[in-house]
Amino acid sequence: MQLRNLQIPAGAVFAPMAGLTDAACRHLMADHGAAWTVSEMASAKALTFGDRKSLELLQDKHPHGLYAIQLFGAEPETLEKAILFVREKGVRFDMLDINMGCPAPKITGSGAGSKLLLDPPLCGQMVAAARRALGDITFVTATDGNHGRGVAWAARLLGQKAVVHMPKGSSQSRFDNIAKEGAKVTIEEVNYDDCVRIAAAEAAETEHGVVVQDTAWEGYEEIPAWIMQGYGTMANEAADQLRQVSVNRPTHVFVQAGVGSLAGAVVGYFTNLYPNDPPKFVVMEARAADCLYQGAVAGDGDPRIVGGDLQTIMAGLACGEPNIISWDILRNHVSAFVSCPDWVSAKGMRMLSAPVKGDPRVISGESGAVGMGLLSTIMQDEDYKELREYLELDQSSQVLMFSTEGDTDPDKYKEIVWEGQY
Questions:
Q1: In what order do the strands lie in the sheet containing 66-72?
Q2: Residue 405 and residue 389: Cα distance in Å, rounded?
Q3: What is the DSSP letter of 278?
Q4: Is 126 exposed, middle or buried (0-12, 13-18, 19+ CB in 10 A)?
Q5: Which of 400, 252, 417 minimizes the C-alpha distance to 345?
Q6: Is the pLDDT confidence value at 4 over 70?
Q7: Are the C-beta atoms of 368 and 404 separated by less than 8 Å?
Q8: Which pLDDT score is estimated for 162?
Q9: Chain centroid to CA 57: how far?
Q10: Angle of helix 370-380 relative to helix 342-353, nearest 10 degrees?
Q11: What does pTM read for this prediction?
């Protein structure tokens, strides 16, 4: 695993345990194969008062292997001062762990430990304070829009730098939305997948540079897996909302895919939620970048790559190289992969913008509305009767779809919905 500039070998992590993981114990565990060890937790506030016992919990004159120290507290300024104090005292450590999981009342009573998770902005402030004490990180990524905006937002929240590379043809409005978060943004003369390679190379050449990408390749899998876990939150929220309207299980789940990270997270979540009777899963891609569809057509289990400019109105789906983690999930659980022309998305945008009487209006962008366009086409167009019957779609079906963006390109949205393009 790569963590900032640290290469962490595979192996167990010896977690901190108060009263147990002293230096001798850590050395023993490291000598028996622990990839890294963590100190007992120490109070940030006590350290700011120069508390000797708290400092001794962290000190290790001869650490074996990679070593992290763990601090707890609920005040950003106090945490920052504590880290500076620890560094001044010469405590050697490779990583800092801010305790946000301890449920003990004596810890949560002061707002620290697991109590921090009830206040996400404060969590961000704590991380930002640690960053100030430890130094800057530069997050580097490639994006068609939403992912890069999220990375830029997180970097701003944490007081870090962000560099975002966008592919040829990216809209000015999406560029501006990312730049407003304080990131350095460029539009390159290459497609999305080449932008990913640019971002990875730049991160490797930048001091404290970290590539934060939602696609995985051999040797780069940890961060994409975390991002997929984050997408799983959306699936969990959708399941909760379905139960609130007495839908215990959708019969079908339609989800769009670029590299496949979102789709893999959604399919993985609902497959685990309903292990004995999962919904039928349908994955939609832009025809110009249908790498998952091409892999399914090949039928040999290996992913496929689509090259070229990948020009489509579905900018968020214009990715020609699949996430290898997601592909393993999707190829085993998806009922149908569908390669969609741009008109399918445009149809969905117009239907959601002007719904039948009684349905709420949904402002959904080009990458968000393709599911609606595909579902209506399958149900209404007799050319797709065979697919409709294969998927067992009928009047009793309960279909879950995800609108993953609003009008993130307002001009293009108006051209499609108002002026009838595509």
A1: 13-14, 36-43, 66-72, 95-98
A2: 30
A3: P
A4: buried
A5: 417
A6: no
A7: yes
A8: 97
A9: 35
A10: 100
A11: 0.74
The DSSP code for 395 is T
User: What's the CA gap between 60 and 65, in Å, rounded?
Assistant: 11
CB contact at 8 A, 402 and 266? yes
Span 56-83, pLDDT tens digits: 999 887 667 788 899 999 999 999 999 9
For β-strands 66-72 and 95-98, DSSP reports them as parallel
Residue 216 CA to residue 194 CA, distance in Å, equals 14
CA gap 329, 343 in Å, rounded:
28
The structure tokens 């622990």 sit at 34
pLDDT in tens, 206-219: 977 889 999 999 98
Please report, as a single letter, which amino acid is at residue 95. Answer: M
Distances (CA, A) of 9 to 14, 70, 215: 13, 20, 22
Q: Which residues of 371-397 are buried (b: 16+ CB within 10 A; e: fewer)?
A: bbbbbebbeeeeebeebbeebebeeeb
Q: At what angle do helices 324-333 and 291-298 cross, to 10 degrees?
A: 50
Helices (H), 32-75: 44-48, 52-58
- Contacts (Cβ under 8 Å, ≥6 apart) of 47: 54, 55, 71, 81, 82, 85, 86
Q: How many Å apart are CA 37 and CA 60, to the nearest integer?
A: 11
Half-sphere exposure of 315 (CA within 13 A, CB side): 25
Number of H helices, E strands in the chain: 17, 14
Query: What is the 8-class DSSP label of residue 303?
Result: -
The CA distance from 324 to 224, in Å, is: 10
* Distance from C-alpha of 412 to C-alpha of 419, rounded to nearest angstrom: 10
Residue 7 host element (H or E): strand 6-7
| Dist CA 179 CA 197 (whole Å) | 21
Among 68, 72, 77, 130, CA closest to 103: 72
Distance CA 347, CA 356 (A): 14
